[in-house]
Amino acid sequence: MAFKCAPIAITCSLFIILATGCHSERANHPHKPESRDIELLRDTWGVPHIFAKTDAGAMYGLGYATAEDRAFQMYYNLRIIQGRLAELVGDVKIGVSERFPQGRDSALQSDIKMRTIGYYRAAEQVAANLDGETLALLQAYSDGVNDYIRNHPNDLLYLFKKLDLEPEPWTPAACIVSWWRLALFFSGDGLREIPAYYEIKAGQRQVRTFEPDDAVGEFRGRPVRDDASVIQRQDVTDEWVRKVMDFAVQHNLTRKVDSGPPLRLPPAPRFSHAWVVGKDKTTNHSAVLVSDPQTLVRNPSLFCEFHVSGKTFNARGVGVPGSPIILIGFSQSVAWGMTALGADQADLFVLKTDPNHPDQYLFDGRWRDMEVRNETIKIKNGQERIITIRQTHLGPVVTPLAMGVRPGDEVALKRIPICEPDRDTFEGALAMTRAKDVYEFQRAAGSWRFPSANCVFGDSKGNIGYKTILALPIRSTHALLDARAAHEGWSSENDWQGIAPHELLPQVINPKNGWLVTANHRPIASFYPIPMGISTGSLGDSDRSWRLKERVLARESFNPQDVLDIHYDTIGPIKRDLVRLGYHLRDVLQYPLEEETLKALEYLEEWRAAGYKSEMAVKGTEIMNLMPMAFRQQFEAAVVYGGGISGLCNMLQTINARIEANPNAVLTEPEAEYVDLILRAAWRYGKSNYGDDPSKWHGLAQARLLETKLPYFSTLDGFESLDEEKDLTLPRLSCIEGGTIFSQQAQSYTQYVPINNADKAMALLPIGQSEHPDSPYRLSGYDLWSGGKLRPAPLSKERVEALTTSRKSL
After folding, report:
1. Model pTM above 0.90
2. pLDDT at 494 over 60
3. How far apart are CA 741 and CA 713, in angstroms?
4. Domain residue spans in the chain?
5. How big is the CA angle at 203 (ends 202 and 209), to the nearest 5 degrees?
6. Do the bridges between strand 750-754 and strand 728-729 make them parallel or antiparallel, or are there none, so unpaired?
């Protein structure tokens, strides 16, 4: 299978034309280090270990190994974000139902969105502007990909031929945009900001404004649990707080809070939990870290695992096929884990346009020309579609994509990462792998751009740290809200003021309690004045952060195994306490519960006796897995405590404290009504899913688990299996409850690192390393996943050699 040049012509820059690979001497005749410089070892589970004398050699080997494992996955996802999916699969629909006969989305609609926003065009611009070393390393990775594909045409996955997917030369831009492809799913898109803008301008929403140093006023009347935050005031110095406050005052960052009904936000990312215990809390005075990224396990795996050792780094972990970035990993000096932060990194700008000035927009008193071009979208077995793309200096015009834009209005999208053409997250990720301790790591992480994340880390000396890592836009002083409301795009006064200095973002090293947990919950207490527009966990705890804290606070000290044991915890505190309150209402308060609620409580007696563990072997787990946790404004209790998971945690924690102080404490009527309703719903869901005979529910649930499909190459945006014959089914997992720490169905990777001895690290990548159905590594993690086990993940070459099953010199 020969390389074929991409049909998307995007820029007149000679550099970018060369970088795309069309007529590229480098792409067709890549320079690579001599064969003796690069070794590719594979261990028992197929994890590639690349050892090279140079950093470029290590990147070349990584690109080669990744193409060997996941070439189709790389190119399939690349085509999606390039806006070229329909040319592979036709205009397939997703989310088809009676209500949505045309589906909620389609390949063509996806292509239109990707082309309109222009992710691939932006990635090419970034590649053209990178510094020499960064570009050279991405090119070395690309050369490795290209060499493997060129030299192994008969070893490529059969889907290349089935879908007529001709692999084009991999490029640095492809590396960059492959990372963005994953990152987009853990960030807001900015396309839902118009309704709030219209309502505020019309006086239908009221906005309260508070000065940066008014930490109390912003939350007056708002249900915020400041004590749930990762960083407390005692954890940071007076000097740092002063610098942050000076910056906020200098940029007039008044806090603007919507006092009306809550805005309808996109689904918040629930991505991961991670924890690290420092030297003051461990028996051997080392730091120990565990990281569990949580997104549904896929076939093949969403992530790829690798170990790459060059001249200036020796690190391993997981990343995205097609990109050399290590998302979660460790070196001989530092280990790190991440969870989604969900900060607002995107904005809509309302443009001033006029029919008398077609393809122009008014800005700072003069009409500016939009950049206008047409692009052709090919559709397999269909008629091609020509779309017009318009670009402003603020960003692409996205009127057809944005929600609720009134006829005649036009909007442009400004967002990280496409508005930063001269930098990329790879620069920060590379520096993180080279860091020698938590202080170097903290500085290196300042170059991370996208997506926004909570990062916990520790070093071999026992120090630990936490940092929010992102490019955080500083909005205009004229912004209507702190975040998630469109801006007026006809004056430079309304544009972003810039990006917040990374040293002023929430961060801490060696907090006073000696440990750190992150699980998509509130990052810092309200003394922090810089708005971050966080969409997830902004009011306090998540269910998983709550449980992590319970586990960590239960011990005065830990040995490394104690830290790892937390990973296997199967108690979801929200569902546990809702059931506890049901029994409190029934047995202590004799509250008049619904008949179906009483049946649910009787059925759950065994579950309670088993310690509220959401394990499939325990009767009752099957209906607790179905129990909804909706906590929206239609519930009076949610108005009091705040909506969403953090609001529900707030309510339960408040009631728990009340009962601890008085075992006969009463619940308010809204609290009791909510508990009654949710337990009744659990019983009803049991009947609707498993039938009218509760004696059969447990067995049916266990059987159905084993029938649950893992579609072959399904995507995060909902595109389904590419070959149903290669679909898999779930193994006999013990815990699938998403509100628990163990949560195996979403165990996309697990990493455990006693950082003073990285060779004792352990990890697991379900379902395995390879996309090839006949590869021994396709299911190399499947049985371990089913059994709840991890396997060795050493770092030194000596320890890797002991596990090596194949060796290749490149």
Report:
1. yes
2. yes
3. 26
4. 573-705
5. 130
6. unpaired
